[in-house]
Amino acid sequence: MKQQEGKKVLLYCRVSTDEQAKEGVSLDEQRTRLKAYCVAMGWKVEIEEIIDDGYSAKDIDRPGLKRLLSQVEKGTVSRVLVTKLDRLSRRLLDLLKLIDLFGQHEVSFVSTSESFDTETPSGRLTLQVLGAVAEFERERIRERVIDNMAHAAKSGKWLTQHPYGYRLVEKELVVHEREAIVVRRIYDMFLDQGMGYFAIAKQLNEEGISSRQGKEWSIRSVKLVLTNPVYKGTLVWNRTDSSKKKRKQKEEGEWIMLPGALPAIVSEEKWDKVQEKINDKPKVPSRAKTSPHLLGGLLKCGKCGASMTISWSGWPKRHRVYRCSAYKNKGTCESKPYRADEVEKWFVEGLKNLVDSVEHRVREVVISQVEEEKSQKKEQKLRAAKLRYERKVEAYTAGLIELSDLVEEKSRLDEELRKEQDSGSDIDEVVVNQVINELKEKCANFIDSIGVLPVPELKQRLLLIVDRVVLLGEKEIEISLVV
């Protein structure tokens, strides 16, 4: 075919970092072959070299390729030459998109090693076949890498960059004690002091404590520390599917989980309590956290249920009062205002009385919640076992595993079913007593802190134990605890 007049030929050469030392793919070798091909074809036109040095062909985000496509779209190119198909791309979808773009601008694509030209039907067919083979091989390489990584993960090897609080020594995590102290403190601040992500980050930044790589703490970095199972010594891998642009979490049955495979920084019990608080955190109004008054955002009117807000009363000596917002804003409630210092005094006295009788009053509630939590954990474990068995059935049907593997998985499922049937509804008294004792301890800590800590810090402790406060009348207060 005749070379289009006034248009040039682009010679595209590429090597990735791991290919630089391999024979036959060096940039000089590619240039030599492509120029020789042009001479053999008798093309006496302008020839331009475009180089991508050190770039993989897994995608088309390469500076040289972008420059090539820009020239194609401008209409100044007649042909694009490569020594081999995978120099342009290893993904069939990307290849077809590029070839389609070349076709739209009447640019032919030539691979000298595979001896085809996309201007011919046979060349286009060969291109698609070779592209499919190239993508298939790349996926096989990816599967082998994943299998090797899965084997390493099951052996307790750490496969990525070390998290805060650890260092990586010969692919194994070791505790970095200086940072581990900060991790334990973050868990205590969140669980025992009632501080949120923002408050924790602010406190650490004010103290000049840096996070990873000397950066400041943020809401996200604090949450990552509080939710990463590595800190309780559990290795979790293969949780997300990263093969596509948008990462998606996989089913739990596909996860690789190895409890006790790593050195722990916090106890498993404390880590689990943090997750429960994160997932089942009561919805506290924002004003309950930010109000400078002890019961601000918590106190409700006993007559209409509306929130009671702080106002000022008296002259010339003013004092704080809690007033029903429905009366204040709408005039629809007959509740009178109450002096704030008196209401807060009644609340503290009521809380002290409640602490003395907390075991008797909340025992039934605690038992109910322990039963519900136990049931949810059993259901979750059984669902994961059923999912694993279903995947083994699919694998056996496809001929990927032996019958013995399927039988072994069925035995594990039967064992889980048997455990569920055998486990009765007996309540673990140790767990119930532990929950009650922790609640009593938190109430006592709050009472001891009154008059010692400033109100903002006092409220953080208060929100750990109190869910709602209702002012029924003179010296009559109803207190709902967080159980």
Task: Describe the structure concisely.
With 483 residues, the chain is an alpha/beta fold. The chain has helices spanning 27-41, 63-74, 85-88, 92-104, 121-154, 177-191, 197-206, 219-227, 268-279, 286-290, 325-329, 340-356, 358-397, 403-422, 429-449, 455-465, and strands spanning 8-15, 47-53, 77-82, 108-111, 116-117, 166-169, 172-175, 235-237, 240-241, 248-249, 256-258, 299-301, 308-313, 319-324, 338-339, 466-473, 476-481. The protein is elongated, with a radius of gyration of 34 Å.
Q: How many beta strands in the DSSP annotation?
A: 17
Q: Trace the largest sheet across and list its strands.
A: 2-1-3-4-5
Query: What is the count of DSSP helices, taking H or I runs of 4+ residues?
Result: 16
CATH superfamily of the domain at 8-141: Resolvase, N-terminal catalytic domain
Label the CATH architecture of the domain at 8-141: 3-Layer(aba) Sandwich
Give the % helix. Answer: 40-55%
What is the name of the CATH class of the domain at 8-141?
Alpha Beta
Overall 3D form: elongated
Low-confidence stretches: none
Distance between the termini: 83 Å
Strand content: 15-25%
Q: Helix- and strand-based class?
A: alpha/beta
Radius of gyration: 34 Å
Coiled coil: 370-423
Protein name: Recombinase family protein
InterPro entries: DNA_bind_recomb_sf (IPR038109), DNA_bind_recombinase_dom (IPR011109), Recombinase_CS (IPR006118), Resolv_N (IPR006119), Resolvase-like_N_sf (IPR036162), SSR_resolvase (IPR050639), Zn_ribbon_recom_dom (IPR025827)
Keywords: Coiled coil, DNA integration, DNA recombination, DNA-binding
